[in-house]
Design goal:
alpha/beta, 7 helices, 199 residues, globular
């Protein structure tokens, strides 16, 4: 692992309550015999992220108890019900002052995105001004890498369920897209019908 990757944190947003899944937190859905949050942490590590920060919310105590998150920095978002924006703010705040130069943000409910896609997006990192996103047939998706100079602007605009969408739209010209459609599938686990994607 290069020094550069040590300076890029994986930031996993895993706070959702799974409202459309009958209130089952997505972090605790089972994938390949283990909680989904554990799988997602493994993907960030396999892709080459240095430190991994995990934002929990719904049923955080259960997640801590049932998932093996050793070596991760686990932060709780008390306002998780407000949506992904608040979790993104909490996660970025947890990285402040750590010396990390970029955050690669991934979502717990996208198990079709593996280490290869993470590694490709990491490969697009240049410096603290970098904005890099995975693309699927040319359409921007996750994971997304934010150089640390962008964090204050993202935190200021991250509200509701929008996450960094408004910020990315405003800075579209600066985003380096990395095609990942050949190595990953960007589906979400949002509804009962989506559970068939889990193994």
């Amino acid at each position: 692992m290069t020094d550069t990757h040590d300076q890029i944190a994986g930031l996993l947003l895993a706070a959702g309550g799974g409202r459309r899944l009958g209130g089952r937190p997505k972090a605790l859905l089972t994938h390949r015999g283990r909680p989904l949050v554990e799988h997602a942490v493994g993907v960030l590590r396999a892709g080459g992220c240095g430190p991994v920060h995990v934002v929990l919310g719904a049923c955080a105590d259960d997640v801590r108890e049932r998932a093996e998150l050793g070596g991760c920095v686990v932060v709780e978002n008390p306002d998780w019900a407000e949506g992904m924006g608040s979790s993104l703010r909490v996660g970025l705040a947890s990285l402040a002052g750590t010396g990390v130069r970029a955050a690669l943000v991934s979502l717990v409910d996208q198990p079709g995105i593996g280490g290869k896609a993470v590694a490709r997006v990491l490969g697009g990192y240049r410096d603290e001004n970098s904005l890099v996103a995975a693309a699927y047939d040319g359409v921007r998706g996750h994971p997304v890498l934010f150089g640390s100079r962008h964090w204050p602007g993202i935190a200021a605009s991250a509200t509701g369920d929008r996450g960094a969408r408004a910020y990315l739209k405003a800075h579209e010209a600066a985003i380096a897209l990395v095609e990942c459609g050949d190595v990953a599938e960007p589906f979400d686990i949002d509804t009962e019908a989506d559970l068939g994607h889990l193994e």
